[in-house]
Amino acid sequence: MDNQFVPNTFTVPETYNANSFSFVPLSNKVVEQDYEAVMSSVQKLKGIFGKGSNWPSDGLTLAKNKEDMKVHEREFRQREAFAYSIFDVNKTKCLGTAYIDPSPSVEFESMVHFWIREDSSHLESELADTIKYWLEDAWPFKNVAYPGRDIAWSKWDALVHKATENSL
Fold first, then answer.
1. In sequence order, which residues have a C-beta less than 8 Å from that of residue 77 and are 6 or more positions away?
2. CB within 10 Å: which end of the chain, N or C, has fewer?
3. Could you report the per-residue pLDDT of 45-84, keeping only the tens digit for each?
4. Is the omega angle on the peptide bond into residue 56 within 30 degrees of 0, that is, cis?
5. Cβ-contact 100, 110 below 8 angstroms
6. Is the pTM of this model over 0.85?
7. Cα separation, 27 vs 76, whole angstroms
């Protein structure tokens, strides 16, 4: 059985520029801008990965953020998951992050979480549309889940629970 997230023939985008946004891989090259964006919006980001998530923790430090970046960089290189820092079109301000991960539910090939900083919330709907268009247009996925957005957390949790039970 082939468990790769994306086909070997797929060229993973290194950047994506559209509308009001510029996407670049989440890495130590952008760690300080990312950290500033996270810290500007800690309360807004609580629960972005579901009710069981404690990210970002109250004690998140730049050093811990750098450690997290190493994980994201490794996942990206190994084609296991893809995290992108989202900047304004001039690439002067980090606006948020998009995470493209394998789905734990067989009903979806991928799940996407994303966030935008508090002071740019007015762009959230545009960002959602941009990400959905990009995934449909440039990525090899037919079924993408957006937990907490297009799928209620309760339904998503049930799908993940079902997938976990079936894998036992």
1. none
2. N
3. 988 898 888 889 888 999 999 999 999 999 999 999 999 9
4. yes
5. yes
6. yes
7. 9
Residue 118, domain extent: 16-167
A 10 A CB-CB count for 55 gives: 14
Asked if 95 and 123 count as a contact pair (C-beta separation under 8 A), the reply is yes
Count structural domains, the chain.
1
Condensed to tens digits (0 to 9), the pLDDT of residues 106-152 reads 899 999 999 999 999 999 999 999 999 999 999 999 999 999 999 99
- Supply 72's token pair: 């994201």
- Reading the block at residue 133, the tokens are 């268009």
> Domain of 110: which CATH number?
3.40.630.30
